[in-house]
Amino acid sequence: MTKRPYPAWQHRHEAVLLWMLQNPAGKRYECARATGYSRWQISRIVNSPEFKRRYQEVLDWRLEQVALRMFDGRGSDRSGEQK
Questions:
Q1: Residue 79: helix, strand or coil by DSSP?
Q2: How does pLDDT run across 3-52, given as a tens digit for each residue?
Q3: Mean pLDDT of 52-78
Q4: Contact 77/42 with Cβ under 8 angstroms?
Q5: Quick count: other Cβ atoms within 10 Å of Cβ 43?
Q6: What is the pLDDT of residue 81?
Q7: Would you list the DSSP string of 1-70?
Q8: How far is CA 81 from the centre of its chain?
Q9: Fewer CB within 10 Å, N or C, the chain?
Q10: Residue 83: helix, strand or coil by DSSP?
Q11: Are 26 and 19 in contact (CB under 8 A)?
C-alpha cells in the first residue's frame, strides 16, 4: 500500500500552528474542533515535514526572544536586528 503524500502547506494550516502555540498542552481533537479540521486532517498536517519545519522555526524564534530579554533586556525583530 502506497502512503498518501502529506498535504501541501496552506494558509489554513497557520490556524493549526497558532492554536498549537497558544495551547501547548492541548489535545489534537481540541485543535480539530477549534480549527474546523477532522482529527485525521490534524494528524496529517502536524506530522507533515513542512509543518514540523515551520513549527520548529517559530519555537526557535520564541526561544531566541526569551533569551534576549533575559540576558539583554532589549529583544529583536524577526530579522535578527536589535531594537
A1: coil
A2: 777 777 788 899 999 999 999 999 999 999 999 999 999 999 999 999 99
A3: 82
A4: no
A5: 13
A6: 59
A7: -PPPPPPPP-TTHHHHHHHHHH-TT--HHHHHHHHT--HHHHHHHHTSHHHHHHHHHHHHHHHHHHHHHH
A8: 23
A9: N
A10: coil
A11: yes
